[in-house]
Specification:
ten-stranded mixed beta sheet; alpha/beta; six-stranded mixed beta sheet; 49 helices
Length: about 1500
């Protein structure tokens, strides 16, 4: 069997088709999915899942492999020659081959049989048959390591959508964000090393940063090899994740060497391919650095270029697809990059330019690229055949003799057309300022093409901005988009602002804020819901939201949609119970809002989109109270550092915002499983704490009182909590220990007393309160010269928290002394009055604890308050002491359990004494030590585990060796645990050593309950018989490990804890000090047991009088004006803080080094720029001088001709007055040159492909257009379309007999064959186009030979604001013009066209006007102004037929013009696909090029903006 395989003829299966077998034009396929199709989440488009699909190779038996094996043969074909016709040529080995290029044995069995109805000549259309492909799968390059890719053999007629489906669905490729088509020389060529490096680095950089596909020819030669090596070098220098660049090689199957190894009907997984350049001959090997191969098969062998049509169709199809990237939907842009190249490359560039694809030409790479680059800066008129001939002779030295004269003409014409489309042409020059990298050149080429593309309004600018956001190129957005050419309204940026937020592009967010986007206008309820709908799926907050939705779904019948009250529910868990819900739950079941496609923002489709979120009725009220807060929370919960920092800088309530962010991040870090993410969250939380400290420090330095107000101000934006409460909830010890916060707490601690009072003065006045009326104690109000009355002084003193604390401390000591006295001295069977006093005292303590438990100023509920109460350690100790006391009291009151009751009460006394430590926390000396003790208790707890191992192990071994069968449990415990424990402290049991053994100290049989059982002894001598040596060794080892090792370990742990805590002890003490101050700030002033009076008063007020509880919290609700002023002051100081931070960063040594390095680089670039500029200035001056000399020479030549014509000639020869050689070398910068004036000859009428047909014109360069110029090679084809629907048309054939019947230059019946330009020449019965050659004979698609008359009314009005005023731009009034889009046309046009014989109005104009308005419109035309009358450069023009039109300006100057209103009322569409609209007149309006020339004349006539 041959390598190609002997396959049976298999009819193409009609099953499992991707799409119907219709044309490849997407316009012929209506979209089956709505614009709101739910596709994978934006953040998942390049997720690890898709990447794993992309990188994985199908294992044997996998579902993916089975699907691929079944799908590809049913949908993708190959081509086989079915008829062997001997060719005159032979193979490389001299064997006979078929016309297809294959040997006889490489054909099917039926191919060599005698022909039946097949004919004798080989015809590809009949003799090549499609059948299921037999080459697909994974390709592994043998001997080159892990180089593995995907490949498939496809028919040259395969629909592009099938291939795109294969790549995206079965190969697992994400649709590209950019398509880079690299073309050029297919043979190896030499590039400068520097240029090669720049090209390689720039190409892979733009591919990697934008997520592009690179498409090449796929062979291991020429430009394809350069691309492959560039990708290889990039992959080797990057990590595995970063080095994922899709490089697709589209090659001809019949030219691939060693392709036999790829044939595998069931798929090669993998197919081994050998790259053998030495023996490839005229064929080519595949490049091992490409990731995917599409091998195009047309059934032939050895013929190059077969893949070009399919590659062109595939690239066009991909460029018409919509890709959602960065939150915006854009059509996939395509750019063509050209290196070197020959004739095929020129055709590729020409086709790309014709299709509107921008091209980047790399100058210096050689041949075609250099030819175009060298003439790209010249005016088109200067690009002549002679100039191209000279360029080719230099750059194509080896093959120049193959260029015929006809080829030179064709090349000149194509290069002229390429250069004429300068907006699509970008020349990359090494060392050009601002374009040092190829990636910048590629992106700038796309932006330049988009900017110069015709468009309505701001569509073009939107597209450019979408590209920049999708590619995350904020540098290009700043330099290319946000320029003076377009005024951006802030509302126009809202959709891309949302996209930048979702895709986490902080630089763009900063840019949009700089461009005037106001967060107050941007953030609406719907926008916020949309943002939360598009949370990063991997973030913890997203999973918590999903959990809330699942819980709600369990209680409701239908699946709930995400609403902000769900977000609020999760946020309250994170912020703590001190804050109120940020977003209230709506009262109605479902709040009406826009239906938004999740998770994408589609900006270029019809229907509801993100842009519609910002098109609201003025009366709609949005809830969002603080947009900065909302966006900040959204960014923080996703741990987006840079984004959150930008938003925080916009916040007004910045200190509360920073503390709240710190709290949220710390809570999320507790539940986060990923350790790296946890560390990032904690670091970011600490950073926000430092921000809050920095702002508060600046505020405190400026004004202490206002700074302290910021601490206790109730923040409505953050759930009616305070900065101080947020800091405490987040355990921000650094913030709470700040000097300003501590000064405020001290101020609260002293109440209305002056903080300057000594503690001894307070105690003295507390014991002898009449001293209050002396000057011993000062009050804070008295310092402000406001004397206080007697009762006021008394009330102010005894309600001060420090006095309340001291009185409660005194009360508590009294309680403990009385309690101790009763336990030790006065514990009678019947309680004494002192004991009853203790019970009463305890009852007051219980009442106070109950009050603290039920005190709920924020309305959290009893359950929540109980959980908060239990969390406090000292409250737990109080409950424990009270419960033990009640248990002891119960036993004490029962006579039979009097003694156990006393024991239990004694234990309660111990617990009450431990409660004293809480009182000592107020002391700056003892407080930190108590914290250290608490930390050391944890060390002891863990140490006991280690100690227990040694104690139990030694005790059990000792007991088992010494004593036989001790059955008393209490003595077992003593022997195993108690004695072993005492041994550590030196109390060694005497019986463990036989020397000190005394049998009187033990019980031989274990019958004495007060003595331990004796060890194993001799029955006769009563001496111990246990192994003393063993017990002594065990004892020594036990003491060694416990006394020396473990105890020293405990000391070391204590020391470490002490050192660690000691550094932060002051902070911890200051932080915990707040709890004590807040407790006594809200505590009743009377100490127990007198506190019962306060409780009784509280009960009467709440229970009987129904008065609300008096709030004693550290909160203060300010008036609106005061709050606004305070926040403005805070925001001002925040700005100064940020500026100070920036200045500090600049003063940082490392930053200064980086800045200096950047400045040195910038200086070097400026020096290079200066050199280039100086050279350019000289060149421009020389060019200008040459122009002047040339003009002077022309003027002198004209003068000499005029003189000669009047008889003043001289006998001498005319001297040469100018040289054209210098002009040929002149180059003016493409960017620095002004727009060329209108071309002197028709351009549209010389496009090579005639519209509506497959006919190619004969190439006519500009210099050969006039009939007067000799052009011997001119041999244009003939084409005349047959219009079956037209009653009047000239003959279809060009026979002289039929042409002689036509009367030119006069009225021929109803047909007017007179030209506006006078008499035209007639040659061989055919008129000649007065404007020159077009490259096509006949009448083309026009109806008549000679002039075809048309009428184009230009109906305009002034563009006005809502108030009726005329809108101006660049000080000129703006016009609106009436345009129409006719069926089967993609572009808009003026409402006019060809005039039928005998008609006054064009048929296309009648389509849009009602019949009754036709006479009135004719009157308007008569009153209008004629702006053009003559030849119209039209693509349908030929050598013998052309369009001449009359353009009439009909302008409505006033807004209330009756005729304009009547016109609007009579506008109609006879076809539902006909569109009519008033459009702003602008040079970028998407009309036919010749219609835009008419508009330019109208705008000039009216003095309007164009």
């Amino acid at each position: 069997m041959s390598a190609r395989g002997r396959c049976a003829k298999v009819l193409p299966s009609e099953l499992n088709k991707v799409c119907p077998e219709r044309g490849d034009d997407p316009a012929t396929h209506p979209k089956k999915m709505s614009d709101f199709e739910v596709v994978p989440n934006l953040q998942q488009s390049s997720s690890s899942v898709s990447k794993s699909r992309r990188k994985a190779h199908f294992p044997a038996g996998s579902n993916e492999k089975e699907n691929l094996i079944s799908w590809i043969p049913e949908n993708i074909r190959k081509k086989e020659c079915t008829y062997f016709v001997e060719s005159s040529q032979t193979s490389d080995s001299g064997r006979i081959v078929c016309e297809c290029g294959y040997l006889r044995e490489q054909h099917l069995d039926d191919a060599a049989k005698p022909p039946i109805f097949l004919g004798k000549e080989w015809d590809p259309s009949r003799h090549i048959q499609e059948m299921p492909t037999d080459a697909f799968g994974d390709i592994h390059f043998t001997g080159l390591g892990q180089k593995t890719g995907k490949y498939v053999r496809v028919s040259s007629d395969t629909p592009p959508r099938v291939i795109f489906h294969l790549m995206t669905q079965h190969w697992g490729l994400d649709p590209p964000n950019l398509l880079i088509s690299v073309t050029g020389g297919a043979k190896n060529f030499v590039m400068k090393p520097r240029l090669k490096n720049i090209f390689r680095q720039g190409l892979v950089k733009v591919a990697q940063t934008t997520g592009a596909w690179i498409i090449t020819g796929g062979s291991h030669a020429g430009v394809m090899k350069q691309v492959g090596e560039a990708v290889r070098d990039f992959i080797l220098s990057c990590s595995h994740k970063e080095g994922d660049i899709v490089t697709i090689g589209i090659a001809t199957w019949g030219t691939v060497y060693n392709r036999e190894s790829l044939v595998c009907p069931m798929g090669g997984f993998p197919a081994e391919y050998v790259l053998d350049e030495e023996n490839q001959g005229s064929l080519s090997c595949l490049d091992s650095n490409h990731s995917h191969f599409i091998l195009v098969d047309d059934g032939t062998h050895g013929r190059y270029g077969v893949e070009i049509p399919l590659r062109t169709r595939l690239e066009k199809f991909i460029s018409e697809q919509t890709k959602v990237k960065g939150g915006v939907a854009i059509k996939i842009p395509i750019v063509c990059v050209v290196l070197e190249g020959g004739p095929g490359t020129l055709d590729t560039i020409y086709n790309a330019i014709t299709n509107g694809t921008p091209c980047v030409i790399v100058e210096g790479s050689g041949r075609v690229a250099d030819v175009i680059a060298q003439v790209a800066n010249l005016p088109v008129a200067k690009i002549t055949i002679a100039l191209i001939q000279r360029k080719l002779s230099v750059l194509f030295q080896d093959t120049y003799e193959l260029f015929t004269e006809g080829k030179l003409v064709e090349w000149t014409k194509k290069i002229q057309d390429i250069v004429r489309s300068r907006q699509l042409l970008t020349i990359f020059r090494e060392g050009k300022y601002g374009q040092q990298d190829v990636d910048v050149a590629i992106l700038q080429a796309l932006f330049k093409a988009s900017r110069n593309q015709d468009h309505f309004g701001r569509e073009n600018w939107d597209h450019q901005l979408k590209l920049a956001v999708a590619w995350n190129r904020v540098d290009i957005a700043r330099s290319e988009i946000f320029t003076d050419d377009h005024d951006w309204k802030p509302s126009d940026l809202h959709p891309v602002m949302a996209a930048a937020l979702i895709s986490n592009k902080p630089e763009f967010v900063k840019l949009f804020l700089e461009q005037g986007v106001r967060l107050k206008d941007f953030v609406t309820w719907d926008t916020l819901v949309y943002l939360y709908d598009n949370l990063t799926p991997s973030c913890l907050f997203h999973s918590k939201l999903q959990k809330v939705l699942l819980e709600e779904r369990e209680h409701t019948s239908k699946a709930p949609r995400l609403q902000l009250h769900h977000v609020s529910q999760v946020l309250r868990e994170l912020l703590g119970c001190s804050s109120q819900p940020l977003y209230p739950k709506p009262k109605q079941a479902e709040r009406p809002r826009l239906s938004i496609p999740v998770p994408h923002i589609k900006l270029n489709v019809q229907g509801s989109s993100l842009r519609s979120l910002y098109k609201r009725s003025p009366g709609r009220v949005t809830f969002t109270m603080d947009p900065v807060r909302d966006l900040l929370i959204w960014a923080v919960v996703q741990n987006r550092r840079e984004l959150a920092e930008i938003i925080w800088a916009q916040s007004q309530d910045c200190m509360a915002a920073a503390l709240a962010c710190s709290k949220i991040l710390k809570e999320l870090a507790k539940e986060e499983e990923d350790t790296d993410t946890t560390d990032d969250m904690l670091a970011l939380a600490e950073e926000y704490e430092h921000k809050a400290i920095g702002v508060f420090t600046d505020c405190y330095r400026k004004d202490e009182e206002r700074a302290q107000k910021l601490l206790t101000r109730v923040s409505e934006a953050w759930g009616k909590t305070t900065c101080l409460q947020l800091a405490l909830e987040a355990k921000n010890m650094n913030f709470v220990s700040h000097g300003g916060v501590q000064a405020f707490l001290t101020k609260v601690w002293w109440g209305k007393l002056s903080v300057d009072n000594g503690l001894w003065r307070v105690v003295t006045c507390m014991l002898f309160f009449p001293l209050l009326y002396t000057n011993l104690i000062t009050f804070s109000r008295e310092k402000r010269l406001q004397p206080m009355g007697c009762l006021a002084r008394l009330r102010a003193f005894f309600t001060a928290p420090i006095v309340i604390f001291l009185m409660n401390t005194l009360s508590y000591f009294t309680f403990l002394l009385l309690f101790a006295y009763v336990l030790m001295v006065d514990f009678q069977p019947r309680p004494s009055w002192r004991e009853y006093l203790i019970y009463f005292w305890l009852f007051s303590l219980v009442c106070e604890e109950t009050r603290q438990l039920l005190y709920d100023p924020d309305g959290l509920g009893v359950v929540k308050m109980a959980s908060l109460y239990i969390k406090d350690f000292w409250n737990k100790l109080d409950i424990c002491a009270i419960l033990v006391f009640i248990a002891g009291l119960t036993c004490r009151l029962i006579p039979s359990t009097l003694y156990p009751g006393r024991i239990i009460l004694s234990l309660a006394f111990i617990i009450f004494c431990l409660r004293l430590m809480h009182i000592f926390t107020v002391s700056k000396t003892l407080g930190p030590k108590i914290i250290i003790v608490k930390r050391m208790m944890k060390d002891v707890f863990f140490f006991l585990f280690l100690l227990a191992v040694w104690v139990v192990s030694f005790g059990v071994a000792k007991q088992a060796i010494l004593i036989h069968n001790e059955e008393r449990v209490e003595w077992l415990f003593r022997g195993v645990v108690y004695h072993s424990y005492l041994t550590i402290f030196g109390q060694i049991p005497s019986y463990i050593d036989g020397v000190n053994f005394n049998i009187d100290q033990c019980s031989p049989n274990g019958t004495d309950p007060y003595k331990p059982k004796c060890p194993e002894t001799n029955a006769d001598s009563k001496t111990p018989i246990f192994p003393e040596w063993l017990t002594v060794i065990l004892l020594c080892l036990y003491l060694l490990f416990t006394n020396i090792l473990l105890l020293n370990l405990l000391i070391a742990m204590f020391n470490y804890t002490f050192q660690q805590v000691q550094e932060h002890t002051d902070q911890i003490w200051k932080f915990q000090r707040h709890d004590l101050i807040e407790e006594y700030h809200g505590r009743p002033p009377a100490p127990p047991p007198l506190i019962l009076l306060s409780h009784l008063q509280l009960l009467l007020r709440r229970g009987l009088l129904r008065r609300p509880a008096t709030r004693h919290q550290l909160k203060e609700k300010l008036e609106k004006n005061e709050e606004a002023a305070l926040l403005s002051w805070e925001m001002y100081l925040k700005e100064s803080y940020l500026q100070h931070q920036q200045s500090q960063e600049k003063q940082n040594t490392e930053q200064m080094i980086r800045d200096i390095a950047q400045r040195v680089d910038a200086l070097a670039e400026l020096l290079d720029l200066d050199r280039v500029k100086r050279t350019g200035v000289v060149e421009q001056r020389l060019g200008s001088l040459e122009d002047q000399v040339h003009q002077s020479a022309q003027a002198l030549r004209w003068m000499m001709q005029a003189l000669r014509g009047n008889g003043f000639s001289s006998g001498e020869d005319v001297p040469a007055v100018g040289s054209s050689k210098a002009l040929e070398t002149k180059e003016i910068g493409l960017e620095g040159r002004a727009e060329e004036s209108q071309p002197p000859y028709h351009v549209l009428a010389r496009h090579l492909l005639y519209p509506g047909s497959h006919t190619l014109r004969f190439p006519v360069p500009d210099e050969k257009v006039p009939w007067e110029v000799d052009f011997p090679l001119y041999d244009p084809p003939a084409y005349s379309a047959d219009h079956k629907d037209m009653a009047v048309q000239d003959p279809f054939s060009l026979s002289l007999e039929s042409l002689l019947k036509i009367n030119y230059n006069t009225m021929d019946g109803l047909i007017d064959r007179q030209s506006f330009h006078g008499l035209y020449a007639v040659q061989d019965g055919l008129p000649l186009n007065p404007m020159g050659r077009t490259g096509l004979r006949g009448r083309g698609r026009l109806h008549c030979f000679g002039p075809n008359h048309a009428l184009h009314p230009v109906v305009t009005r002034w563009r006005r604001n809502l108030d009726g005023s005329i809108i101006r731009k660049s000080l000129k009034k703006m016009l609106e013009v009436l345009v129409a889009q006719y069926p089967l046309s993609d572009v808009w046009a003026l409402p006019g066209g060809s005039l039928e014989p005998g008609e006054m109005l064009p048929l296309k104009l009648k389509w849009i006007l009602r019949r009754e308005f036709w006479p009135q419109f004719q009157n308007l035309l008569k009153q209008g102004t004629e702006v053009h009358k003559g030849y119209l450069d039209d693509p349908r023009n030929t050598d013998n037929a052309w369009v001449e039109t009359v353009a009439i300006s009909v302008h409505f100057d006033t807004q209330n013009d009756v005729e304009m209103k009547r016109l609007n009322s009579f506008l109609q569409g006879c076809d539902p696909e006909l569109c009519i609209r008033w459009q702003v007149l602008d040079k970028r309006i998407p009309l036919h090029a010749n219609h835009k020339q008419l508009l330019h004349k109208v705008s000039t006539l009216l003095g309007a903006y164009y």
